[in-house]
Amino acid sequence: MDVRGNGVNWSRFRLGTTLTASAMLLVVLLFACSSASAIPAFARKYGMPCSSCHEAWPKLSPFGQQFKDNGYQLGNDRDAPIFQSPAYWPIALRITPNWHLEHNENTIVDGPNGPSSAVTTVTTRGFDYTGMDMLTAGTLAKNFSFLLVPSSDETGAFHFESANVRFDNVFGSSWINIKVGKFELDNLLSEKRILTLSNNGGFYQNYHFQPWLAPGQAEPSYVFGIGDNQLGIEWLGHSANDRTRVSAALLQGTDGNPDFQSGILSYAGRGYEGFITASQGFELGSLGLQRVGGFAYFGQAPTYPEYSQDGAPIFGTGIGNEPYYRAGFLGMWTFRKLDVTTMYFYGHDNVFLATGTPSNLGTAGLPEGAHAPSWNGALIETNYAWSPQLILINRYELIRMRQQTLGGAATDTYTPNPGDLGNVDALTFGFRYYPFINTRAGFAFHNEYSIVWNRKVQISPVTGLPIDLTSSSLFFGIDFAF
Amino acid sequence: MRNISSLKFCLSVASALVLPLAAFGQGDQAPAAKPASHMESHIGNLTGNSDAGRQLYFRYCWGCHGPHGDGNGENAPWVTPQPRNFVAAVFKCRSTPTGTLPTDEDLYNSIRRGFNFTNMPSWLALTAQERANLVAFIKTFSPRWVTEKPGTPIPVPAEPKLTIESIKHGGELFQKLECWKCHGQEGRGDGPSASTLTDSNDQPIRPYNFTSDNRSKCGSTNQDLYKIFMSGVDGTPMPSFADVVKPEDAWDLVHYLRTLQYNNPSPELTLWESTPEGKAIVAAKQVKETATGSGFKP
């Protein structure tokens, strides 16, 4: 006990003062705030609070999804730009200043025995900021709409995250909506509207997973993520109340990259890919709107290019296409303020793609023991919207390899992969608090912890055995959009 | 002590004399009714709950209608027409006589349908239960829901057979009732009185333009049209014609009004255009539509 001077218990005094100050801060935080937004340009256009279209921005509510599906139109004949003040400019900006900590266990570093000879834990922390999105979207005329998102990374290097035009309600039917350009796939669980932001939790593991060739060796020949925006043309149909949704897209096999460039080897094929999705919503009494659906992506990637005279691959000439696909089912369940999303995911890559083998070499060119890899994945995400101003977030994802690329029994000439090579477990939880909600801008205190376990993905330089890579992020951000 | 006792006695006597007088003075003023803190709505098999509706209101509605439901949301100054004032509880789209409260179903349908050419969208994406909850909550803003009951819905008799005669008779009524003064001879909402019209908030209001392909505010069916001029559109200059138009005449008027909707195919328009007279009139009135809904004659 810390008793000094005139008999005052300073320890108790400091504790009381701290508690009082904390309580006052909490009261100030809670009551200085009124009532919340992702493209505030829409909020400004329609004068509606962010919470109308977003359960918690950027995650869409059913009303927001219907607005998006209808080509960013409310359908009250006030959507065309002619009804806006000429000064209205449909631009919103979003960036997140933050403090974050990154903790990586089993990081291979230089050691006493030379480069990459030791294993240690690396922790970095400090103030930082995210990349920035410029979100411009809206109608050009009734039933003609657009989305353009110039986006920069945190160094200021820009690319176009989205660039598309839409023809909505063609022939007066909500079942005919066409989108052309670069766009997010009609993923029922939208990664572009994910509620988490950290390095480990800011994306869906299942959407980007590709199997490992061997510990320390990533799959070499192509890059693809179902969560990546893609180039192509999409048809979307939906019922008037958006309960039934179907879409099909014809896509360029470049993973959204321009100039026919894609993948590690920087060449893309001339092939097209396809994505289909369908879902059905239904009402369950006072619990709310439930939705079940499925999706499938049918891709193909070249295994070798044509070369110019100097031996460089020529963009867009990739040949020897081999297939890959992803498919899954989703359930989006609402229990009043609690919503639960469940997803089953399945992936399969062709053996030539998985081993980086030009297919013109035939099976004789494949490494010994090579198989077409396949895997299963699952996700469960629970969000509790305490109020439009506060949402609690929790997500768990897993990926389990079903067939390793280099599997089977060991022989004299090759060592098979561990059965759990590449398996992933990822846990993320946090909350977002929106101190105010208005019809002009969006602001959120974002707090998140995320941890990802990647199994056996590297070789320990110390033991020579495969070891896990475990990464975690702690993220405190101020997410704003205006 | 005696002085204090005397003072208490005097105050007591004075209070006994003055308070009844004060109460008597206010006796002719009934205490103002207060809105109910909890309400229910009943739409078909649905029972809406205002407590659940409150959460929805403060997610979706308050930006325009305001936290107090008085139509003074933070966005209200930029909204034309102004958002509905739930405290006044005067509603445009009703199935009930003018001046009366609407039924729960009327409010439910308004939320489901939205209002064209206003900032009020269709809330079809919400679940039926959510819309019912919102109806219940809206009713907690006005004491009218405590002191009054909704009006009895105006009966809508079966629609008589569509004939050329009914269309022509409807046209005669359009002239006789002077509908054209506001809606214009061709139904474009440009009659001689149109520019002078204001709503109950003294805000300019435009009569409905039948020639646009947009549905009217209170519904798109013939029954909806019938109800509009039999119940009136409260809060606007559009009166109720229930006392001056017989039901069969009202249906004739409905049939005629449909022929003004050149860009909205209907049996009435098809029948009308099947006659040389009707075809010539429609052709003479035909306009080119712009993407904004305004028309011009080529």
Summarize the structure in short.
With 482 residues, chain A is mainly beta. Chain A contains six helices and 24 strands. A 16-stranded antiparallel barrel of chain A has the order 5-8-9-10-11-14-15-16-17-18-19-20-21-22-23-24. Chain A has a two-stranded antiparallel ribbon with strand order 1-2.
Write a structural description.
The complex is a heterodimer of chains A (482) and B (298). Chain A is mainly β. Helices cover 10% and strands 48% of the residues of chain A. Chain A has two domains: 1-32, no CATH class; 39-481, Porin (Beta Barrel). Chain A has helices at residues 10-31, 40-46, 50-53, 62-69, 205-208, 351-355, and strands at 3-4, 8-9, 54-56, 59-60, 91-95, 97-111, 114-129, 132-141, 144-152, 158-167, 177-183, 212-214, 217-218, 230-238, 244-252, 272-284, 288-301, 322-335, 338-349, 374-387, 390-403, 424-433, 442-459, 466-481. Chain A has a 16-stranded antiparallel beta barrel with strand order 5-8-9-10-11-14-15-16-17-18-19-20-21-22-23-24. In chain A, strands 1-2 form a two-stranded antiparallel sheet. The longest helix of chain A is centred in the first third of the chain and has 22 residues, at 10-31. Chain B folds into two domains: 40-147, Cytochrome Bc1 Complex, Chain D, domain 2; 164-289, Cytochrome Bc1 Complex, Chain D, domain 2. Chain B has helices at residues 2-25, 50-60, 62-65, 104-113, 128-138, 144-147, 164-176, 180-183, 222-231, 247-260, 267-273, 276-285; strands spanning 40-43, 46-49, 288-289, 295-296. Mean pLDDT of chain B is 85; it is low at 13-28. The A-B interface holds A 35, 46-49, 51-52, 61-63, 65-66, 74-78, 80, 82-83, 141-142, 240-242, 283, 285-286, 288-289, 387-388, 438-439 and B 52, 55, 58-60, 62-64, 67, 74-75, 78-79, 114-130, 214, 291-293.
